[in-house]
């Protein structure tokens, strides 16, 4: 083996036949690489050796490589474990990289200014791995959060939005796989990319990682240049996707805004025309204009929902709160929706048992919520049915409920209908954009309240809103 090493950069490489021959005071500072043959029975001398020679990279080589041995070597800060006898090409490649342009020079802050303020989380119970990965990205401008305890990481996942997670798999308390499941279930980070970095190299664990939505699976010991490149490429792709989505959202918002004026004008004109025609004995024309008016009002509601979706997601909605009567608000909203309900011979029944209904709200926005809930009820309830609206109170909250029969009973998680573009319109055979309930939830949450849906009995759906007093 020594003869093979002589063929490469001789004075920069040290090869130690037996780890027992290493003294804790031995000096390898003049070497760029030290390869040590071992049976993994006593790696303790490595710790002081690596600390004392920070400019030297240490590898292990052995004929007894196992997953457990790799993890043990990784714990002591070994960056590479080679099967013995090892291929000299690996050593030549190491020096080829050393001679090439410094990686740090390639990844300057100026070159990767787009990375600035992007947030990544590193979770590994091995402090050396965490430190190595943090150093790898230190010059990039990334905002890096590191955790040795998965439980601490979990707390941060629920509080902050991250752009990428780097997770070890074998950790105490919570494994990397279990942590990934928690990330996918979280509200803030359910779509954040995950990379697993692990000494587990078998195909079963890799498949599990990819099944959990991992963007990459990197084996330890890892090449920091490869990890850096993978992370940067994933972040670049995510940033481009986000920019494209923002452009699309902005375009939709602009179109929706431009459509508001002509639709409002159309509604006004149709209402005047209908009012004039109702004085004459012409029911057929009345019905045609009534249908046109209903379609125009649906278009207006769709445009408003598109605009409010854009505003909420870009944090440009501000609530104008004042003390208002919810009793008056509900009565007005029901009156405004009676025409649409009448087309399907549906009726509203309103029951109020709350004594104190005046609370601090944005009147227009809460009214928008009720219009969306009532429209949803009218669309999904069968003809000749009743839509029940009730209001009650307890010590801390005013509670509003809207309950109606429904043609299609969903078997999925019922509260998924508050997500964007989710509706049961196809199965209910009605037209629905899937935005009304999404907007309603965002408005209620902006008021520090809550909204939920539940199935009552075999054919009824009930929406319940709680608004703080």
Write the layout of secondary structure elements.
Layout: H1 2-6, E1 13-16, E2 33-37, H2 45-52, E3 57-62, H3 67-75, E4 80-83, H4 88-99, H5 103-106, E5 119-123, H6 127-137, E6 143-147, H7 150-159, E7 164-167, H8 176-185, E8 194-198, H9 203-211, E9 214-219, H10 224-277, H11 283-313, E10 322-325, H12 326-342, E11 347-352, E12 358-361, H13 363-380, E13 386-393, E14 397-405, H14 425-428, H15 436-446, E15 450-456, E16 460-468
Parallel strand pairs: 1-2, 2-3, 3-4, 5-6, 5-7, 7-8, 8-9, 11-13
Antiparallel strand pairs: 10-12, 13-14, 14-16, 15-16
Helix pairs in contact: 7-8, 10-11, 11-15, 12-13, 13-15
Overview features:
469 residues; five-stranded parallel beta sheet; 15 helices
Fraction of helical residues: 40-55%
Strand count:
16
Question: In what order do the strands lie side by side in the largest sheet?
Answer: 6-5-7-8-9
Structural class: alpha/beta
Quick one: biggest sheet?
5 strands, parallel
DSSP helical segment count: 15
What is the 3D shape?
elongated
In whole angstroms, the N-to-C terminal distance is: 80 Å
Rounded average pLDDT = 80
Radius of gyration based on Cα positions: 32 Å
Strand % is 15-25%
Uncertain segments are 101-110, 425-432
């Amino acid at each position: 083996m020594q003869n093979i090493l002589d063929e490469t950069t001789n004075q920069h490489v040290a090869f130690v036949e037996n780890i027992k021959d290493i003294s804790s005071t031995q000096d390898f500072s003049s070497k760029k690489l030290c390869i040590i043959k071992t049976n993994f029975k006593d790696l303790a001398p490595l710790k002081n050796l690596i600390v004392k020679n920070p400019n030297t990279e240490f590898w292990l080589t052995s004929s007894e490589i196992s997953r457990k041995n790799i993890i043990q070597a990784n714990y002591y800060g070994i960056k590479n474990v080679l099967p013995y006898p090892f291929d000299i090409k690996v050593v030549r490649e190491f020096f080829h990289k050393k001679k090439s342009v410094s990686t740090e020079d390639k990844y300057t802050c100026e070159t990767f200014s787009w990375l600035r303020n992007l947030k990544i989380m590193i979770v590994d119970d091995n402090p050396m791995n965490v430190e190595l990965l943090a150093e790898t990205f230190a010059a990039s401008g990334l905002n890096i959060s590191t955790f040795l305890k998965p439980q601490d990481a979990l707390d941060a996942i629920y509080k902050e939005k991250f752009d990428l997670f780097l997770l070890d798999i074998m950790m105490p308390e919570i494994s990397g796989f279990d942590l990934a499941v928690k990330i996918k279930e979280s509200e803030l980070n359910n779509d954040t990319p995950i990379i697993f970095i692990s000494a587990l190299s078998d195909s079963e664990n890799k498949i599990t990682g990819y099944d959990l939505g991992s963007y990459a699976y990197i084996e330890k010991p890892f090449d920091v240049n490869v990890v850096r490149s993978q992370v940067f490429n994933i972040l670049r792709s995510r940033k481009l996707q986000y920019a494209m989505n923002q452009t699309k959202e902005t375009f939709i918002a602009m179109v929706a805004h431009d459509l508001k004026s002509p639709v409002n004008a159309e509604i006004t004109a149709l209402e005047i025309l209908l009012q004039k025609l109702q004085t004459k004995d012409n029911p057929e024309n009345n019905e045609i204009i009534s249908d046109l008016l209903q379609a125009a009002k649906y278009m207006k509601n769709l445009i408003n929902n598109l605009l409010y979706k854009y505003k909420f997601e870009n944090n440009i909605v501000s609530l104008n709160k004042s003390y208002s009567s919810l009793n008056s608000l509900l009565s007005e909203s029901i009156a405004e929706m009676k025409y649409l309900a009448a087309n399907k011979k549906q009726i509203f029944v309103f029951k109020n048992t709350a004594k104190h209904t005046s609370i601090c709200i944005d009147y227009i926005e809460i009214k928008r919520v009720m219009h969306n809930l009532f429209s949803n009820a009218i669309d999904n309830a069968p003809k000749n049915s009743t839509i029940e609206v009730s209001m009650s109170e307890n010590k801390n909250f005013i509670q509003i409920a809207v309950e109606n029969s429904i043609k299609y009973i969903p078997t999925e998680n019922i509260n998924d209908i508050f997500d964007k573009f989710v509706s049961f319109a196809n199965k209910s055979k009605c037209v629905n954009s899937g935005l009304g309930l999404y907007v309603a939830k965002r408005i209620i949450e902006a008021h520090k309240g809550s909204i939920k849906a539940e199935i009552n009995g075999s054919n009824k759906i009930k929406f319940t809103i709680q608004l703080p007093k």
